[in-house]
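Convert to structure. Protein one:
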Amino acid sequence: MNGFEKRAKSIKTKIMRTTLEMLRTSDPKRIRIADISKTANVSQVTIYNYFGSKELLLREAFISYVDKALLDFEDYMNEERLLKERIEYILFLEKESFKEFPPRLIKEMLLNDHELAKYVEVQYQNKKIPIITQMIEEGKNSGEISDDVTTANVLALIQLYMNQYEMMLGLAEQSGDMDAFFEGMVHMLFYGICGKP
């Protein structure tokens, strides 16, 4: 990569980072190229030259966020860890991602950008699900998951948790101790209401 390419990549990264920071606090419809330009300290022309439109910039910035999150997820899951630690990490990641981007914002972005929604779904199906499936199979092989429980059962249970995550996040905040709340949820996932570790 020559000097020009490095500089261009650095400017693009700066613009996308600025856009993500603004998305964390602003409605996507209210973000203007002029605001991004001012905050990133680049010209509006530069933004249009790199991205073409605000919509394409929002998409590319969010895709970069998704790609990094998936890479971090894959790295963590490939380390030697107990199944319980991996499940806790999945819930922790959801909690952290919802702190950065509220579920309402993610839903709005996916509803308003079909290309982005398609990209996220493909990444979820082709990358995240196979990693989780492998984790479950390893858990079954190590005896951490009962032979009576299928991979499909565990995937369905995790999906149920994720589908209700926004509500669970609200309940966790109301509890006053989010970490303890999620530790209790992981405990119930593994041992049931009456079970013991």
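Protein two, convert as well:
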Amino acid sequence: MHNGLFRLLGTGPRAAARQAGVLLGLAGLLALLGTASDPGHADRLVLVAICDFALAAVALLPWWSRARPNAPAWLALPSFAVLGLSTWSFGGSASGTGPFLVLIYVWAALHFPRWILLAYAVPATLAYLAPLVLTDQPPLVLSSALVLMPVAITVALLIEAQARHLRHERERLARVEQWRSAMMSTLAHDVRTPLATVRVVLEELAAEADPPVAQLVDAALRQTARITGLAEGLLDAQRIDRDGRLQLDLREYPARTLVKETLTHVRSTDAPVTVDVDDAQTLHVDRQRFEQILVNLLTNAMRYGAPPVEVRVTRGDGHDRLEVRDHGPGIPDHLRERLFQQFAVGGPQGIGLGLWIVRQLAEAHGGQASAEARDPGVAMVVTFPSSGSPREHRDT
């Protein structure tokens, strides 16, 4: 259902032709229904319906995808002729012709440049007036074209201008997104390359250093690993944008050990972290991705919240729950709803990717990420399916 709808919508010659096919099919159906209200002209209305359905069939042919962008505009010319035939079939009544003529103009305005809309003026006017003249309609009826055609053309030009503006905006946003993706990829790669050299040097120093110096080198190594993780996070963001899913290495781990080891990557002197995890608690997760989730949540709590920061892991009905709570001022309800969106809370202290990556990684596990109000503070909650529970790997 949704796939069919999305194939109908969009831009390009195939979408334009398909939309024309829908309009023509509707016109043919209404012509058939008209035979019940006007049986005296049933043969003419059946002819109109056959013409509409034939044009609809042509519009729905797959070869339009290989046509030039403006090629489907030719479908309007026979459509105008069929509208004229419809007016003649109803004995000169244009009550149905006028609305469909405007619909054709609206359809054309969504897909084609303004010069095509202006070029339609002559054939559209002839299609409207010719059957009225042939059926000897009074001048008052003929003069309705002086109202209908300017209205149809004006509406079409306004729609065309708006559609053109939206297309230009979409192209601009596509260029911005392409630049952003290239920047993130370049930054991540350029950061990882020198970090690898730094890491090798630090490891050599750690092997020969005295204990006091070795502790400092060990701290530097942890932070080097942290920066590497941030670079990999940027690459993750790029991969999520491009591919929509991540491959996970899911295994069973002791939850307390995972949390404790992750804390070694976080500087917590200004905001002490308390851990409330049962020794028997386990998590069925990708280790690297779980560490990335927890580090992002802890960093967010220390940056925007207030101490103490608490980490809890509990087991519920078919899922495990990771909760990182701070005791800060909290988050307003309207912001909490969009907190895990991309670039939702960027600012001087960050670019707003951390919580978005958390949500993507949680959903890749088959879980969810959310923010819950506390008094005081806020709790960032991530759920994971427990071992043996069904997992729904979703496209992100």
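Residues 2-143 form one domain. Strands lie at 250-254, 273-277, 282-286, 309-315, 319-326, 368-373, 378-385.
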